[in-house]
Amino acid sequence: MGFFGKKGSSGFSSSSTAEEVTEGIDGNGLTAIVTGSSSGIGTETARVLALRGVHVVMAVRNVDSGNKVREEILKEIPSAKVEVMELDLSSMSSVREFASKYNSSGFPLNILINNAGIMASPYMLSKDNIELQFATNYLSHFLLTNLLLDNMKNTARESNREGRIVNLSSSAHRHPFPGGIRFDSINDEAGYGSIKAYGQSKLATLLHANELARRFKEEGQNITANSLHPGGIHTNLFRYHTILSGFASTVGRFMFKTVPQGAATTCYVALHPQVNGVSGKYFEDCNISKSSAYGQDADLAKKLWEFSLPLTSP
């Protein structure tokens, strides 16, 4: 990947790693939640944030796997502050339980990284009977964010430090269903396509960040919200597509990012001072980029917000 790495205006590129883009940054006094941090770029994100002094809360479905990652981080960084808490994004009751426990813990919240996701799965429904990719990649993160917002607002106000919400989207947001979001047939199995459904969920994730940014600006909150494409990385996201996985393992290894490179944009947007005050933007390769026409549609973002509220109500 390195030979494609032309630096952008930030001074970083597709070949930059998470450690490189956070070098010299002091994260002491900050607390971050990273969803899906027991594998892939989520693990590297948690590790590098901890390396920079951030108190990291790993929100993971498999607590045993999360604890193993935590032990590895502590072995490398004995001074790291890392917690593991259970969060199953296929279940809204699990999201509510996680948020309740977190808000009762006394932990502040400076940074929320909505990282977890699944990619191009066969048609399945979540535990709440919502198409699984839409539920896991977007809707449960929408609920989680809303349940943690008061904590984030209080933390930003009391610490006088900018809060940051980082949503992991994908370049696949450019290839959703016609119209962007299938509001009238979100659970329609007959019209389901795994790649289009993934694109829809990642478009929703991007629009979520944009609408949060608009609302924070309107309210005068010291919190930003941005989305990003981490780049193509060969992780277990490919488990539902053997052809894509095989390509990534052979020819793709010359084109795909490494995991440290894949976590770079997330860590850059979460921690770097260059991003202070930047909100409602879409990042690629640690630089601001341009999303699709749907990704820039403010009315679509508002419609998605209103659509999501009743779906996530108790």
Automatic annotation (TrEMBL):
Region named Disordered: 1-20
Pfam families, sorted: adh_short
Bias (Low complexity) ranges: 1-16
UniProt record similarity statement: Belongs to the short-chain dehydrogenases/reductases (SDR) family.
Record-given protein name: RETINOL DEHYDROGENASE
Protein's organism: Salix viminalis
Source taxonomy: Eukaryota, Viridiplantae, Streptophyta, Embryophyta, Tracheophyta
